[in-house]
Design a protein that fits this description.
D-Maltodextrin-Binding Protein, domain 2, 17 strands, single chain, binds 2,5-anhydro-1,6-di-O-phosphono-D-mannitol, alpha+beta, Fructose-1,6-Bisphosphatase, Chain A, domain 1, binds magnesium ion, about 350 residues
Length: about 350
């Protein structure tokens, strides 16, 4: 007798089971996630070609936030738009790379969901062959809205029905939450399909690893400096233990490490970016990552309160981001609250 080996679970099978057995998602949301995953495969191929694809370097344009767009920023945005506009599952899309929401062309049917994404996060890393990623968030289109404008997207992150990211590293992975834990899939490049490789990711509550751009220390506010200086003091300081620093400068890669082995990621407010409200964007960076981190047992705040409770004021709004292992995020948030109350 030979026994049958257990077949790997593809993303498609995982989603079908979520729909059929758990009644957790409907067919449209399943299609949406599959389409986003397919687009991420196309982006992964473009990123993976590197210089051979002729896609490195600047596109010679700026996005709405005044940042120079890379060719791969523009290409990734187009890949996500083209993949998603004809399926009938979306009411509109919005992206870091576009000033205003992208409507579904009239020749296609419209669905009940809104998709918002950062097509290629950490794109300053592209030209040096370091991990980059795609971040996405799914919201419901508000009832009765036929032609969603930016206002339709201004929902607190707690309303997200799904969120995820793809990380284009040594392997390409898709990390996904449908509000019922966090699952990780690895791209089988030969088969061209994402395969479930880690179920129910959990972020340890304690950590000795932190991620922050330390070069901004002199621009930080007092509670931020206090917290990091305590970590840097190590064994002989008030914390009594040594901490380790990691900073990829690709949020996706830094958050992925935290999901795999714990840690914290902080992009605080500093004097240089004070007028802008922070560095990272609420709708397509902070909210989806906060949703994933909370679903994995971690914590995500803007330094004072829960990110997912913030009511967005504009499509490209920025916020300070503190996320990861619960006990450290609670501590640094507490330092900020005490300073705000003083
Ligand atoms: P981007 O969306 O323009 O790529 O910017 C976001 C990125 C994050 O991925 C990363 O954590 C951060 O910016 C790095 O900032 P810094 O260059 O200040 O270290
Ligand atoms: Mg980004």
């Amino acid at each position: 007798m030979h026994s049958r080996t257990v077949a790997p679970i593809s993303l498609s099978r995982f989603l079908i089971e979520e729909q059929r057995e758990k009644h957790h998602i409907n067919a449209d949301l399943r299609l949406l996630i599959e389409v986003v995953a397919r687009a991420c495969k196309a982006i992964s191929i473009a990123v993976g070609k590197g210089a051979l694809g002729g896609v490195l370097g600047s596109a010679g344009t700026e996005n709405v936030q005044g940042e120079v767009q890379k060719k791969l920023d523009v290409l990734s945005n187009e890949i996500l738009l083209e993949a998603n506009e004809w399926g009938g599952h979306l009411a509109a899309l919005a992206s870091e790379e576009m000033d205003a929401p992208h409507p579904i062309p009239h020749r296609y049917p419209k669905g009940e969901y809104l998709l918002v994404f950062d097509p290629l996060d950490g794109s300053s890393n592209i030209d040096v062959n370091v991990s980059v990623g795609t971040i996405f968030s799914v919201l419901r289109c508000p009832a009765g809205v036929r032609e969603p404008d930016a206002g339709a997207f201004l929902q607190p992150g707690s309303q997200q029905v799904a969120a995820g990211y793809a990380v284009y590293g040594p392997s390409t992975m898709l990390v996904l939450t449908l509000g019922d834990g966090v699952q990780a899939f690895t791209l089988d490049r030969e088969l061209g399909s994402f395969v479930l490789t880690a179920r129910d990711l959990r972020i340890p509550e304690d950590t000795r690893e932190f991620a922050i751009n330390l070069s901004n220390l002199r621009h930080w506010q007092a509670p931020m400096r206090r917290y990091i200086e305590e970590l840097l003091a190590g064994k002989s300081g008030p914390r009594g233990v040594d901490f380790n620093l990691r900073w990829v400068a690709s949020m996706v890669a830094d958050v992925h490490r935290i999901l795999c082995r714990g840690g914290i990621f902080i992009y605080p407010l500093d004097a240089k970016i004070k007028d802008r409200g922070g560095k990272l964007r609420l709708l397509y960076e902070a909210n989806p990552m906060a949703f994933i981190v909370e679903q994995a047992g971690g914590m995500a705040t803007d330094g004072l309160g829960r990110i997912l409770d913030l009511v967005p004021q504009s499509l490209h709004q920025r916020v300070p981001v503190f996320l990861g292992s619960k006990n450290e995020i609670a501590r640094v948030t507490q330092y900020h609250r005490e300073a705000a109350a003083a």
